């Protein structure tokens, strides 16, 4: 079972994630310790989008599609913003038009056109303080790749609204490859597709379960809290002595 620990240094709010994990491959077991020399060799940062690049408020969507006299916000949220249907949409199993039709036919929602439902579905993002500046700082010394659990409608909207996302070299998106980051398979796919070793990467993500999945294949991570802390944590990783 993977264990993630915080190791504080002398700078305020700066921490390193040192990952010590036990992995089981078939019948053999091994302990994988991420060493300082591996940390120094990292060159690619895998960036999540939701609540890292942009904040996400799915209740904005729910308030838009639920009739004014209804109290079914939570029901709509549970059905379409989390759970099995959302997972299938994020994995590319459900097509965008089918998802919009599903919402439009639902008795929980009002009578809206597909275009209006799409607009409401996409309008859940807001700029996150410090994101653009933080991204620009990291891009000076690292390649930045997107690794996100998302659907085609959200990603198209994000590319249109956040122009700096268009400049990155690679995008690993759940709806394209079919894996969510809560599964180690998403990171195994990344390594196989890129042909690079795990120590070349560091993941920045707001969900601890995604960081644990990355650790299973040897990818180190920083759990996102704020951009100043994240930039400082990356700098601390680089400055560790060999």
Provide a descriptive summary of the structure in words.
With 242 residues, the chain is of the alpha/beta class. The protein has 2 domains: 3-53 and 129-239, Rossmann fold (3-Layer(aba) Sandwich), CATH 3.40.50; 58-123, DNA polymerase, domain 1 (Orthogonal Bundle). The protein has 12 helices and 10 strands. The chain has helices spanning 36-40, 58-65, 73-81, 84-90, 96-105, 114-122, 131-139, 152-161, 174-177, 184-194, 208-216, 227-239, and strands spanning 3-8, 15-25, 28-33, 44-47, 54-56, 125-127, 143-148, 171-173, 201-205, 220-223. The strands form 3 sheets. Strands 8-7-4-9-10 form a 5-stranded parallel sheet, with helices on both faces. A 3-stranded antiparallel sheet has the order 1-2-3, with helices on one face. A hairpin with a 6-residue loop joins strand 1 (3-8) and strand 2 (15-25). Helix 7 runs parallel beside helix 12 (227-239). The protein is elongated. Mean pLDDT is 84; it is low at 1-40.
